[in-house]
Design brief:
Blueprint (H helix, E strand, L loop, with lengths): L2 H13 L7 H8 L3 H14 L4 E4 L4 E4 L1 H4 L11 H17 L5 H17 L4 H7 L12 H13 L3 E5 L8 E13 L2 E8 L4 E6 L3 E6 L9 H8 L12 E7 L1 H8 L8 E4 L5 E7 L5 H8 L5 E5 L1 H17 L6
Antiparallel strand pairs: 1-2, 3-4, 3-7, 4-5, 5-6, 8-10, 8-11, 9-10
Helix pairs in contact: 5-6
């Protein structure tokens, strides 16, 4: 039984009575533990505004409608993560459910639409009422995507030709796909690279050739994948780790304070109202961090490390040169 059903059951019990009901009777009717009841009650009072009160004299719980008026559950209660998930599922069912998998996905679609109806959401109106706008999208060849996904789930090697943007010439590699990542609107592949004998992340749109390979698949444990790819900033992370210290101007400090650039970031407000942020990044692949820093223009300054400051300086010098501005 999910949380929605528990909430609905407790609401039915309390709204159908004029006198308090004991905890023992509530637990019996809901078939749940005291801990579950306390969690559901706290969620209803804190987030749904339910006027649940306790009477010591009568030893039971009740809706305090005398002081708060008649109470009904709100038709919709979704946090941002739940709404995001609903939109993703709706989009996937709409895109995939009209093709070859239409009949197989029909039961899933009916269950999903029933879930929306429980929360008084019209499935037909969902896309009109809520819209998700993604970042710049880079298309991937359909046949390559299918081969990569097939190799990923069947744990088979691939031979690819990869044309990295930072390299003048493409390279041929044998890879063991470990994980597909959808990041900022685009697809990436975490894999073991047999050429480099290390973990690598490849942008799928940069793969110019892809075919199955008979090479032995190298399966990397999930914990090792997480330890490699999660510690530093951005999609192209890795074992090399350094700390970047950024200073944001007072004009945007309040906004930056509410942003999470990395789970391990630290922030501090300086006496003049600026915000100082320290976060880990991979100095070997700082391109994404540099791009995000430059997007804030004159409202952010790199304090350290010096190499990152120099890279930012060079980018700004080249940008000024495009507009005929001479920078010493």
């Amino acid at each position: 039984m999910d949380g929605f059903d528990r909430i609905y059951d407790l609401h039915k019990i309390l709204s159908g009575r004029k006198t308090p009901i004991s905890l023992t009777d509530i637990l019996g009717q809901m078939e749940c533990s005291r801990a579950t009841f306390n969690r559901i009650k706290r969620h209803m009072t804190d987030f749904l505004g339910a006027p649940i009160a306790y009477s010591r004299e009568q030893g039971g719980y009740y809706y305090d409608q005398q002081n708060h008026g008649h109470y009904e559950l709100p038709g919709i209660w979704l946090n941002q993560e739940e709404l995001h998930a609903l939109m993703l599922i709706h989009g996937l069912l709409s895109d995939v459910g009209s093709g070859l998998l239409r009949n197989q996905l029909a039961p899933v679609r009916r269950r999903f639409e029933a879930l929306l109806s429980q929360r008084e959401i019209d499935p037909c109106a969902l896309a009109d009422k809520v819209r998700m706008v993604g970042a710049t999208y880079r298309p991937v060849r359909h046949d390559y995507f299918v081969r990569i996904a097939t190799a990923l789930f069947n744990e088979r090697c691939l031979r690819i030709t990869y044309a990295a943007r930072s390299s003048a010439s493409p390279t041929d590699r044998a890879i063991s796909p470990q994980r597909l990542v959808h990041y900022r609107g685009n697809w990436y592949l975490d894999c073991w690279c047999h050429l480099r004998k290390d973990l690598r992340t490849f942008a799928l749109e940069c793969i110019t050739h892809c075919q199955p390979s008979e090479q032995t698949f190298n399966k990397i444990p999930t914990a090792e994948l997480d330890a490699h790819f999660h510690p530093t900033y951005g999609i192209f992370s890795g074992r090399q780790k350094a700390n970047a210290k950024l200073l944001f101007a007072p004009t945007i400090a309040s906004r930056i304070k509410d942003e999470e650039w990395h789970p391990d970031q630290t922030i501090a407000i300086t006496p003049d109202g600026s915000l100082e942020m320290t976060l880990p990044f991979n100095p070997a692949t700082p391109q994404e961090l540099i791009k995000d820093i430059l997007s804030y223009g004159d409202e952010v300054k790199v304090l350290e490390p010096e190499d990152l400051r120099n890279r930012i300086r060079e980018k700004l010098r080249l940008a000024c040169g495009l507009y005929g501005i001479s920078v010493c």
